[in-house]
Design goal:
Elements (H helix, E strand, L loop, with lengths): L1 E2 L6 H13 L11 E2 L9 H14 L26 H4 L9 H14 L2 H9 L6 H11 L5 H8 L1
Parallel strand pairs: 1-2
Helix pairs in contact: 4-5
Length: 153
């Protein structure tokens, strides 16, 4: 499990991720789970995985062992809209409260750290609303979670 990969330092973080991935080369069913909210470390493992996920969702990839699951708001311009946050925070109200995120937003406004909070609160990074819609249309159908369960069991 690779956690908070958006905060892993650029080149060094990407090299470390690649070492973790290559260490599973001899396994018949390798599994590496990388999780993170969006971040502000550029050109690290998060950015690389985001690019790969975008290519896959657009149909421009031949990868067969990569399953990106991305939670993000539809329109990056609405990053501070509390009504949009459920889309990028599926556990909202369970492991993180709306009040906590509102406080973080207030801190971001006070400290002029908007980019950091924009990334962390909404996972808004890189795709325009049109590109997001294109990715979902190219995916062709809604994902059946029971079907996914068969794949991983």
């Amino acid at each position: 499990m690779a956690d908070e990969i958006a905060s892993w330092p650029s080149a060094g973080g990407l090299k470390f991720y690649e070492v973790l991935k290559s260490s599973q080369g001899a396994r018949k069913q390798p599994l590496l789970i990388a999780i993170s909210s969006a971040g502000y470390e550029n050109e690290g493992p998060y950015d690389e995985l985001f690019k790969r996920a975008t290519r896959l969702l657009k149909g421009d990839s031949r990868e067969t062992r990569f399953l990106p699951i991305m939670y993000t708001i539809d329109d990056p311009a609405k990053w501070d809209d509390v009504n949009e946050w459920q889309k990028s925070n599926p556990n909202l109200g369970v492991s993180v409260s709306v009040d906590y995120l509102l406080e973080e937003l207030a801190i971001g406004d006070l400290e002029d750290a908007v980019d950091t909070y924009r990334a962390q609160l909404s996972n808004a990074q890189g795709l325009t609303p049109e590109e997001t819609e294109e990715c979902w249309q190219r995916a062709g159908r809604e994902l059946d979670l029971l079907e996914v369960e068969k794949w991983i069991s």
